[in-house]
């Protein structure tokens, strides 16, 4: 892939379509230009050049120079990047504010149609991809727990678990839920002892995988690499992992 193609793809990722990307890069190359000059130097159809330039101007990628003939110039890359960041921040605030306004109605509406034409299987297996989604699932499991949460994690992932889930663990403990954590160092030195964990914790030098079990009924098992996990709602399988945890717990310090 050429360097120019890479740039066009990146421009697409920040919100420009194919024609907008091509005209903006043409403006960068040519400097101040008329619409006719741009039409002859780019692959954008002549009939589309004017409306594409207007779109670029609205998005902050181009400036219109007053005069005859009317000319256009590209916004300098350094200035453009700052503008993009600012727009993203403003857009994020607007979207977050909008979400806060509608989330109650959205939850009510979605809940009203959830399972209306079917029912969930008692036992389920699903794959969760992405660490943020995995942590979100862990938080949900902890928040829904009624009796116990047990987890085995490596030293590093135990620290991440504490960072993301400590408030949920504290909330569960206030409801009378027991929470225990085994930090698996795999025989390697770890700085996990320097962390004040929300859960009762012990250390193990042997590797036992990475998983979390809720109430002996649900299991979240990390796959190799930590970017994906299996979520399993099966009391038999979850109970087996809970039993493994108990064995390791008794042999850990």
Automatic annotation (TrEMBL):
Protein name: TrmB family transcriptional regulator
Alphabetized Gene3D superfamilies for the sequence: Winged helix-like DNA-binding domain superfamily/Winged helix DNA-binding domain
InterPro entries: TrmB-like (IPR051797), Tscrpt_reg_TrmB_N (IPR002831), WH-like_DNA-bd_sf (IPR036388), WH_DNA-bd_sf (IPR036390)
Domain of life per record: Archaea
Domain Transcription regulator TrmB N-terminal, chain residue ranges per copy: 11-78
Originating species: Candidatus Undinarchaeum marinum
């Amino acid at each position: 892939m050429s360097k120019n193609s890479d740039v066009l793809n990146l421009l697409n990722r920040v919100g420009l379509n194919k024609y907008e990307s091509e005209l903006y890069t043409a403006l960068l190359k040519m400097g101040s230009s008329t619409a006719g000059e741009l039409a002859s130097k780019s692959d954008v159809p002549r009939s589309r050049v004017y409306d594409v330039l207007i779109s670029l101007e609205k998005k902050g990628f181009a400036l219109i120079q007053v005069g005859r003939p009317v000319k256009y110039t590209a916004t300098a890359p350094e200035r453009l990047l700052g503008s993009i960041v600012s727009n993203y921040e403003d857009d994020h605030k607007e979207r977050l504010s909008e979400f806060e306004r509608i989330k109650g109605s959205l939850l009510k509406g979605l809940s009203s149609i959830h399972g209306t034409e079917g029912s969930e299987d008692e036992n389920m297996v699903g794959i969760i991809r992405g660490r943020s989604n995995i942590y979100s699932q862990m938080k949900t499991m902890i928040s829904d727990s009624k009796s116990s949460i047990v987890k085995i994690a490596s030293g590093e992932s135990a620290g991440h678990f504490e960072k993301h889930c400590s408030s949920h663990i504290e909330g569960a403990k206030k409801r009378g839920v027991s929470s225990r954590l085994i930090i698996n160092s795999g025989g390697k030195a770890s700085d996990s002892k320097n962390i004040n964990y929300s859960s009762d914790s012990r250390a193990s030098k042997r590797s036992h995988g990475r998983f979390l079990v809720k109430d002996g009924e649900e299991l979240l098992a990390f796959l190799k690499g930590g970017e994906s996990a299996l979520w399993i709602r099966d009391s038999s399988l979850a109970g087996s992992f809970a039993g493994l945890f108990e064995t390791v717990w008794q042999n850990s310090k």
